[in-house]
Amino acid sequence: MRKIELLLILCLGILIFPLNSFSISNPYTAIPPFLQQGKYANLMLALDYSGSMSDYAYKEDEYDSSKTYIGYFIPDAKYSYFKGVFYKDKNGSYTGNELNYSYMTKLDILKWILTGGGPVVKLTDGKKYLHADGFLIPVNDVSTYNQKTGKLEGILQKIERLSEHPRIGLEIYSLRKGSVVQDWVYPSYEYRKLIRTINREYAYGGTPTGEALDEIRRYFSRESGVWGGFSKTDSNYVDPYKFNIKGTLMDVHCAKNYVLLISDGAWNGHRFANSLWDLSCEKSYGAYIVVDPVDAGYNYACTIDPVQPAYEMWEGGQADLVPDLKGKQNVKVYTVSAFMGNSTFSDRVGLNALENVAIFGGYKSDSSDSLPSGYSSVPPDPVCSVTQAPPCGSFVNLPSSSSDWDANGDGRPDDFYPGNDPLALKKAIENILAAILKDAFSGTSAGILPERKKSGVVAEQTLFYPRKDFSGKNVDWPGYLYTWWFLNKKNAQNLREDTNLNKILDIEDDRILKWRVDPDTGKVHIDLYGSYANGTEKSKLATYDTFDNLHPVWEAGENLAFTSPDSRTIYTDVKGMLVEFNDFNKNLISNYVGNLTEPSCLNDDVANLIAFIRGKDVKGCRIRDIDDSGDTWKLGDIIYSSPTVVKYPGYSVVYVGANDGMLHAFRLGYVKDLNNSLHPVKLTDSSSSSSRALVGQEIWAFIPSNALPYLKYLADPEYQHTYYVDLKPFVVTYQNRVILIGGMRFGGVPGNSPTLTPPVNDADIGYSSYFALDITDPENPKFLWEFTTKDLGFTYSGPAVINKGSKAYVMFASGPTDYNGDVNQPLFVYILDLLTGKSVRNITFSNLQNTFAGRLFTDGLDVDEDGKTDYVFFGYLKKGTDMQDWKGGIIVADVRSSDPSDWKFDTYLEDKIPPVTSRVVAGKYFGRYYIFFGTGRWFYKEDNPDPSQANRIYGIPLIHSGKNWTLPDESSIVDVTTSSFSVCSASSSSPKGWYIRLNTDDSGYLKERLISDPTTTDLNVVAFVTTEPTADVCGFGGRSRIWLLNGATGSSIFDNCTTYSLDHEKLKGTLLVQLSTAAIHKVDLSSAASMFDNSTGKRTTLNSATGSSWFVGVAPEGGAKFVSPAGGKGELLLWMEK
Fold first, then answer.
1. Which secondary-structure segment (H or E) carries 607?
2. How far apart are CA 373 and CA 404, in angstroms?
3. What is the C-alpha to C-alpha distance for residues 719 and 24, in angstroms, rounded to an integer?
């Protein structure tokens, strides 16, 4: 007997109870502005509600208790029945497993997957019930009940609570009373109406799939429908390409569009007859007559083959449905077969049709007039007609597999997912929605290059991906740390891979690397060149579009992936003690990590969190597998924490923070001289070893205590990017001790945040912090201190280390109080003892309300060269009435006294210039000290205060008067944007400061700004890299250019100046500029004129450009790197950069 016979007594007073969404559980999500892109997407669900969807979901004639049957009932629970209601009862007569087998229809299962089930009703007893076909279930007894929200939950509710999710619309189709579209919902970010509509509709009628897809095609073409659905005259009509952006409806040409078609049978049509003479057909709508429609019971049908609209919406990705919008607007179609086998002719041709629709709606092509491989027409031959019965058109068998629609070669179309039983259907829908979310919201799949560091004959390069595919396994936010050879000879300076993978610099064999960016697509290409014996480049040998094809000397991320989690040494600090982050210390650590009931995969067990952070797989947690051997990607993304290299007597170490919660120490190795002109050096473990086994391996890692409460978010299977240890490490040597100062930057919660609080009850844990480690012995770090306080804000400024001989201090300034660079407090400065972390002095700037500091990262200026710090300079950002109103200035700290209480802090250009974010850098030019800085800020994509006010770059001399060094009167700072004559002709005893106005009105871009640190040289040349963020709602990143200037005049290095003349014969060296695109741009000073385009660069009166042409990408915080050529013939420069 198929069904349990029960008497249903329905109650009166039913109220439909809608389901609501809830916010995401991680409020600390943030990404850098150069990755913030307008991510706009529409997903249209096309659901087949034909009569067969009311059939039972389980096809077996008899119940099998050894199997699990999913559905509304909890399979392993027991239920009782009373007056039409099934309710949980441990003494009940029915198992949930049996009830699912007996009662679930195909439509019930579809609703269970998508919405959790429904409709949900509220009865007169005040309780809420799921109203199924013939019975009720209390909502808290339904298998999809979420105890946290008190509601039923399917995959749509889970998607809605993601921080980034698509607008989703709905088309329910079948054939009832001549109508194709039974109900529809316009795309919306709120899914309440969508869920309610899915739940309330019933299954009945035929399967006009082609007409349903044609209606969707018309909608995405900005046309009104003709099959009973979408109409531009609807009062609630939603244009698929208009989105509400900051309160304004705007066209978004880059919106990605998708259709998810779920059907349980072969298509047939919208009008039927047994005689041709009795059948009319809407040929103007693209319909035509076919013979013997499947499962129709008639001889003829008027219909549309669904591959036709699928193809017209996609055309290999080249379709353009709205020609008057920029770019191409098309729609990708995914299909799911629901409850379809292959035992009947109807099922077999129905499966063929869904597979063919997926092929025509998703194949890849570079040409709009090409068809999927293996096909010669649309629909496929033979086309269904009045003389050609099925199998025909999309009902035909698939051709041989082809990579344009079957990338993995398994014989199944990439965009078709089979769901032949309830569990398979659930998996198919989850996988296809995950694929859509990945395509729509994963940002760029290209690597992002935030920083590069040079050391001796090797260069360190960090790279990260928002999402990376490892042979079909996706990992979110993996980080990389590459090491390349850096050849630095008098006649040749270039970056190289280790082509032979022998960790020996082979001049003729290791290929030279050059990066370039396609300005139209933004894609990075890496050209590889051969090398002559003298190190100069030969012709191009190859071009790669991915770093995966390159051969680094070593790469830390991959090394760490193949490192056993148990063999890692990871420290944290607990109450000022350095302890290992392992299971042995879990009781100590448990007080800092907070509540671990979420994510549920941690099972409220700190041991699971420790295992995950160390790199082990924890069931149900975020997937990081990269192969089938269980190896996991452990290194997190490295965004702003550029690597710092420290040279020890035996080998060098790279220190870098990452957004996996840790500061990492990797063994760089020892560069050993081979005394061979063609093979000059090799990299070994140490100076005393020829082994290479330890090169590139992690020595240890450190988790600051204030990062501990946020580690659980890394384990969340729905992880959204969070900052952890993202500040660049700053290393100083004091009294023969090597001290590293690190920080969280935008990790943790800023003190005085108006919206955020730490996720722990401990009032002293979870705030953005700085920390110091003694790394004198690179294999045995010592914990010194960790510092945070309520007014510190985010730890953005970084340190200024002040050496006073017998004592040394570290100074921090308060940072912003939210991720957008806002602030709600005055500027504070904190001075600590460098070695103990003890507070020495705090300063409040009452004249600088709603202000935070720019970057410090300095050991100050020693003007009398006695080894003691005399002055520290840094900028500030002061907010006015709103986020469009920002001013700035310079803080001058006179720290010449040995007593910090006597230190004086003055302002310069107070509130008279735009905000100063980047470092104020000092250098000696023509025998005099200058400071260099610029204005501008960029903390979020649209960050563009006072668009009409130009930002500036500055060079200002220090004036020596008696015992003091001061900055000149503000009136003596000259605008040299168009002419530097007055500065160039000034007396060397009365020098003038200068500034250059940056652009404000370039089409398609926000105004130009300096967010990157200036670069000083010993050639009297200063370099700036300025950026214009994109203004395109569909774009991300921006463009940047290089300024090479005479530091004393602000004029071009190619100009001649009587008082401050550059020796052009000595202008040798290379400027390396790496941008957010992962491209490194190289500027050779001796031939830089070829890169400086007068049509885009600023001019001086001598008609020489000072600014280069534009490069695609955003400049890093650390600025450009200048490399002087090695002295002598054929020598390699082994040098370290601080």
1. helix 606-614
2. 7
3. 10
Which alpha helices (DSSP H) does 420-571 contain, by range? 422-441, 556-561
pLDDT at residue 11 is higher than 70: no
Residue 761 lies in a domain: no
pLDDT in tens, 239-248: 999 999 878 8
Q: Are residues 995 and 1125 in the same domain?
A: yes
1027 contact partners, CB below 8 Å, separation of at least 6: 936, 938, 1008, 1009, 1010, 1011, 1012, 1038, 1039, 1040, 1114, 1115
SS3 872: strand
- If asked whether residues 506 and 372 sit together in one domain, one would say no
Residue linked to tokens 């957008």: 820
> How far apart are the C-alpha atoms of 804 and 226, rounded to whole Å?
82
Examine the domain organization and report whether 516 and 504 are in the same domain.
Answer: yes
**Lowest-pLDDT range of 155-164, 326-335, 829-838:** 155-164
Q: How far apart are CA 1011 and CA 948, in angstroms?
A: 18
Given 723, 751, 769, which residue is the final one in a domain? 723
Name the phi and psi angles at 871, rounded to 5: -140, 150
CA distance 161 to 713: 15
Q: Please work out, in degrees rounded to the nearest 5, the angle formed at the alpha carbon of residue 519 by the alpha carbons of 514 and 522.
A: 80
Q: Is the pLDDT reported for residue 778 higher than 50?
A: yes
pLDDT value of residue 990: 84
What pLDDT is stored for residue 1090 in this prediction? 55
Peptide bond into 778 cis (omega under 30): no
Cross-strand pairs, 109 = none
Instruction: Enter the pTM of the model.
Output: 0.79
Asked if residue 400 belongs to a domain, the reply is: yes
Structure confidence by residue, pLDDT tens digits, 201-225: 999 999 999 999 999 999 999 999 9
Query: Which CATH number goes with the domain that contains 281?
Result: 3.40.50.410
| C-alpha closest to that of 895 among 917, 873, 880, 927 | 873
Encode pLDDT of 443-502 as tens digits. Answer: 433 333 444 444 447 888 888 988 888 887 889 999 999 999 999 888 888 999 999 999
Give the largest CA-CA distance in the chain.
110
CA distance 108 to 123: 21
Residue 761 parent element (H or E): none
Which of the listed residues 723, 748, 765 is the one where a domain comes to its end?
723
Q: Do 197 and 51 fall within a single domain?
A: yes
Same domain, 959 and 969: yes
pLDDT at 442 over 70: no
pLDDT at residue 646 greater than cutoff 70: yes
Place of tokens 């760089």: 668
CB-based contact 683:695 (threshold 8 Å): yes
Query: Is residue 47 in some structural domain?
Result: yes
Domain of residue 193 covers 15-19+40-406+415-441
Whether the per-residue pLDDT at 1094 is higher than 60: the answer is: no
Q: Report how far residue 307's alpha carbon sits from residue 321's, in angstroms, rounded to the nearest whole number.
A: 16
C-alpha dist (Å) from residue 423 to 63, 98, 420, 1134:
17, 16, 8, 62
Q: Report the Cα–Cα distance between both ends of the chain, in Å, rounded.
A: 81
**Structural domain tally of the chain?**
3
Map residue 112 onto helix, strand or coil: helix
Q: What are phi and psi of 461, to 5 degrees?
A: -135, 125
Whether residue 431 is found in the same domain as residue 543? no
Name the pLDDT band for 1091 (thresholds 50, 70, 90).
low
Q: Would you place residue 268 in the very low, low, confident or very high pLDDT band (cuts 50, 70, 90)?
A: very high
Task: Decide: 110 and 419 in contact? Cβ < 8 Å.
Answer: no
Same domain, 419 and 517: no
Average pLDDT of the segment spanning 797-816: 98
Q: Are β-strands 248-251 and 242-245 bridged in parallel, bridged antiparallel, or unpaired?
A: antiparallel
1029 and 978 share one domain? yes
Q: Is residue 907 part of a domain?
A: no
Output the pLDDT for position 366.
Answer: 78
Mean pLDDT over 91-99 rounds to: 96
